[in-house]
Amino acid sequence: MKASNSSEPKCSPVLKILGLALMVFWFAAPVLQAAETLELSARLVWGTNRDKSGDDELKAMTPKLKSKFVNIFKWKEYYEISKKTFQFPKHEGKQVRMSKKCEIIMKLLDKDTLQVQVIGEDQLQRTVKHPLKPILNDGDLFVVGGDDKDSYGDAWFLVITHPDLGKEPKKEK
Amino acid sequence: MNEKLVIQIQAYLDGELSVEARLQLLARLEKDPEARELCDSLKAEQSLLKGVGESGHELPVAHSYFWKAISDEIQPHPTSSNQAMHKQTTVAFQRWSAWLVPGGVIACIALVMFQKGVFDDVLDGIESTGKKAARIAPSFHEIDSQQQNAGFISFRSESEGVSVVWISNY
After folding, report:
1. Structure ipTM
2. pTM value?
3. Which of A13, A158, B10, B112 has the fewest C-beta atoms lying within 10 Å of its C-beta?
């Protein structure tokens, strides 16, 4: 006679599939997170009270960003010396040269802490940490600035933003 | 008298012979007085043994047999009301389990996603929607300086959404 064992745990196929999916998700999530990339935009800006003097390389700042700067800083004119938009894996850093003298190293310390190292004339000037979410989610600007040593009364700014921020709207015909 | 004839007589007395063999044996017994004598004596012994009989002997019975009978008496017999109640409970449990099992799985997935920090961005998005002016200011930045003669000022403009670190050289 065959003895029936009712104490054996019974598991339906649906539960088995869901359990398997849960396990796959559990193990795949860190890998997917590590593979995510971070996209940011960095601008090197020159602030001055002087008019633009025949230097064609200088590009005026977008009105949207300029209006923010005018409300905060004392300078009247702001010119973009360079603008770089770059992507880098979240678990790695990125070194970007903004000008001949200025270079930055960006790195994500943890999920929400962005570290920016400012290198001027091949020397580390500052290491600044800032929350990342306000930049990405709220469109905040993170600005590192200082006096221009070469031009008295002027200033330089390093502006870290979301890549889509500050884009000029397309003119409608 | 040979052995075969004796066996045939015994078989006749036990009623094991066929009709033909029985007739042949009866004819033989009429002719052979010795065989008839043997048959009569065996018949007499047989009748004596039938009168004696065998005494009855009971086999030992296991206790489990009695316990089963008692437990059958003790246990309530399933009635129609009990069966209906049991059926209702089963149906209600099945109805609940149909929701509980997927709900439990969803709760597990949500727990995993929460642990992995997947929800953080979603929650932040909800918080920041339409409440930009009232949102909590981000935690302030940390600044490390590599230069001895350098200072800094940091400030934030909530209205413009701008955080500034101003580096000054003395």
Report:
1. 0.72
2. 0.51
3. A13
